[in-house]
Amino acid sequence: MSGTPLPLLLKEYAKYGDEDLFRRMIAADAVTVNPDRHYGNFGFLICNDTFEKIKMAPVFDYNLAMAPYADWREGFLDMDGWIRKRGPVFGGSYYEAAKSMMTPGIRSELVHLKDLELEIPTDQKFTKERLEIMNRFKNIQIDRLLGGRRQFGFGDIRQKYEMSGNELFHCKEIKK
Known about the structure:
The chain is mainly alpha-helical. The protein has one domain: Phosphatidylinositol 3-kinase Catalytic Subunit, Chain A, Domain 5, CATH 1.10.1070. 43% of the residues lie in helices and 4% in strands. It has seven helices and two strands, in the order ααββααααα. The protein has helices spanning 6-14, 19-32, 79-85, 94-101, 104-114, 128-145, 155-163; strands spanning 44-46, 53-56. Strand 1 and strand 2 form a beta hairpin.
């Protein structure tokens, strides 16, 4: 499958009844800007006895999704640049790839997901501020996939938390 274009991959997954699951994986990659969707991160469950493909493997790798290394020095100030540097393995952009996989069902789910606020425990490493940024990030990505032209902007969030004295938003030299 190495180097296989999206339409051929889609056709292969359709043979096993997993066309929709494959489409959803590509759409989820676009929403989360998952730069790690390479050919070793998805595939098929294989029968050990016959080595025949059974169906699409259910585990998708998202450990690099949602800009885990973005911060105010790189990423948040130019999210479009951040995304372009970490473009998808498939297609020219996350948006092109996902839009080519869009179905009415996926579109409907994106509409419902758009305003759903992610609620997860926060701590010193994954702060409330970062959660707020990621919720906005998700909503903007979905808006763009649905045809909108919303721009990234997190300055108001930065200002809100800088005013509260949160040290995580002040650029300090890293102590050796």
